[in-house]
């Protein structure tokens, strides 16, 4: 398994990412994760939609909470062919509880807890914490990565404007 350093920190401490370094123009790797009803979901289940994939360490933390709420709010201004996915290693039961309490109705939450399929395929599994690093991937309808952002400090929020601008450029 490829190990990469110098990309992110967690509370100022350097971390190691497991998996490949993806780049814009790469085909988005296939992955499977579990939704809040325990159904196995794959990237291909979202067909030709533009996919905003937001990886977060845990929905039960303030920054992940704020990020997912913000993307849920931004979804209202995006067309129906754009789907927002938030992936974490939280158990599906915790994700369902959190979404209900937070009123999340436009973001699909997925859990990578079973085999870290997403984290390892997208190179965002933090070796030292066994959590996903904060990152955002925008995948077009043909399955090509058109934008990606690894947030350098895991405890910081992503650049929402840059993510949304990349999506609007494809519309």
Number of helices: 4
The strand order across the widest sheet is: 7-6-5-10-11
Helix-strand string: EEEEEHEHEHEEEEH
Portion of residues within helices: 10-25%
Structure class: alpha+beta
Mean pLDDT: 96
Largest sheet: 5 strands, mixed
Low-confidence stretches: none
Q: Rg from C-alpha positions? A: 15 Å
How much strand?
25-35%
* Quaternary form: single chain
Shape from CA axes? Answer: globular
Q: How far do the termini sit from each other?
A: 36 Å
Say how many strands there are.
11
Notable traits:
single chain; 171 residues; alpha+beta; five-stranded mixed sheet; four-stranded antiparallel sheet; globular
Give an overview of the whole structure:
With 171 residues, the chain is an alpha+beta fold. Helices cover 23% and strands 31% of the residues. The chain has helices at residues 62-75, 92-102, 117-121, 160-168, and strands at residues 3-10, 13-18, 32-34, 40-42, 50-55, 82-88, 107-111, 125-126, 131-132, 135-139, 145-150. A hairpin with a 5-residue loop joins strand 10 and strand 11 (145-150). The model has no long low-confidence stretch (mean pLDDT 96).
